[in-house]
Amino acid sequence: MNDPSQNRRLSLNVPNGSSNSGGGGSGNATGSGRTKIALKPGYGLMGWIRFQSNAKNLTNIIQSSGSNDPHLNMITITELSKHDQPDDCWIAIRGKVFNITAYLDYHPGGQDELMKAAGKNATNMFEDVHGWVNYENLLEKCFIGRLVGHDF
């Protein structure tokens, strides 16, 4: 009445991770071609969300015009290009300029990846890797203004 084969335990042979099978040959587990680095404890997406939710202004810009609306700020490509260092890092994505200096240590791909876009219109680089990311929400408190000559 009781079939002994039903009481047998099944086991699966799972690779120990030493091979790159299933990774698409890209060197990472997802095969996405993106590389993630080990971040300091407390950094990463949740750390960034906590940090920026308590911050009032991550732009490091004092409004001299009397307006606190960054949508009124027009940033030239020349001005953008001056901000290409880890301690002063601006990027433009889809016509919006962000001061990402505070975000550098939180980026899953590491600071070096973001520095490739520092002081530049990074729209194409961003689209190639992160087109699905809601950057406007993620970098909302870093928004400085609009890039001259670009609509968004």
Automatic annotation (TrEMBL):
UniProt keyword Transferase, yes or no: no
SUPFAM superfamilies to which the protein is assigned, alphabetical: Cytochrome b5-like heme/steroid binding domain
Domain Cytochrome b5 heme-binding: 72-148
Sorted UniProt keywords: Heme, Iron, Metal-binding
UniProt xrefs under Pfam families: Cyt-b5
Gly residues bias locations: 20-30
Biased composition range(s): Polar residues: 1-15
Region: Disordered, residue numbers: 1-33
Superkingdom of the organism of origin: Eukaryota
UniProt entry tagged with the keyword Metal-binding: yes
Record PROSITE patterns: CYTOCHROME_B5_1, CYTOCHROME_B5_2
Annotated family: Belongs to the cytochrome b5 family.
PANTHER family reported in the protein's UniProt record: CYTOCHROME B5 REDUCTASE 4 (PTHR46237:SF1), CYTOCHROME B5 REDUCTASE 4 FAMILY MEMBER (PTHR46237)
The name this protein goes by in its record: Cytochrome b5 reductase 4
Natural source organism: Dermatophagoides pteronyssinus
